[in-house]
Amino acid sequence: MNRTLPLVIGAVIVIAAALLPLWIGPFYTRVAQLFFFSAGMAIAWNILGGFSGYWSFGHTVFIGMGAFSAAHIVNRLGPFGDGPLSMIAPILLAGLICGLFAAILAYPILRLRGIYFAIAMLGVSQVVGELVNNVSWFQGGIGVFLQTPVPSAMTPEDFFYYIFGGLLLLCFLISVAVRNSRFGYALLSIREDEDTAMMLGVATERYKIMAFVLSAILVGIMGAVYGYSVGYFTTYTVFRLDFSLNLIVFCLIGGIGTLFGPIIGTAVMLFITQVLLSRFLDIHLLITGAMVVAIILLMPGGIIGALSFRKRRANQAEPAAAEARA
CA torsion sign, 306 to 312 to 318 to 324? Predict the structure, then answer.
């Protein structure tokens, strides 16, 4: 029963999400598409930053690398057919390229910890972005095109709504599998005390590299699909620092290191910025920044952490109240 109820709730949510474009207009379909894209990347970031405690300030490097890899694969090797199936091979290859880059980078950069790792990743993202922008072979300065995979019977917003929705579901299922596996427990032990975990026999280097590569592959795939969704992009379209910062903010707001935190944080922030503040463009960033600071100060563990704290207090209060009544 305990396992059946979450599966039923999950199935209802998936069916409702599949039918949602029938009732909402193009604008809210694009907002939902942005939510799926952002939440999927936040979950992928959370596998490394949340579970193992290695906060990356430069995950935008995998978004940009994924998008440009897909574009160059199509441009160099030719189109892989027409329609939606034509994007499968470039997207998967782009994800593998990001994973390979992460595997090469992992050993030296994961020897750093804390703020040193975060700043090093920020530097990597800036260096790679500048290389793509200034080396003519990459065409980052002039931009690259990706042929649209949208079938004629669908609108682009509906098509990418379902594609990003499917990827969000995939990222969530992978995150659940990681969190409840030996791999996930090893990452949590690294986050709590890496030296102690190492002394107790946890293969910390191997598990950190696995988390780094997995996170890079998922973000690279999302970046490649993002490239298809915009069609034409330059370096400044995909190597954006705000991508990296948003992933961290979404996880912090929802509850970093939790399964649902990245999804909840993304939903809250996009609702505030895209819906509530859409009419206040002049002071949009000011209000958003103030609200983020207030939420983090009032709820250091995020929304999930605050709810868990209230639940623990309620559980502790019940025996005390029963004892007082007796």
Answer: negative
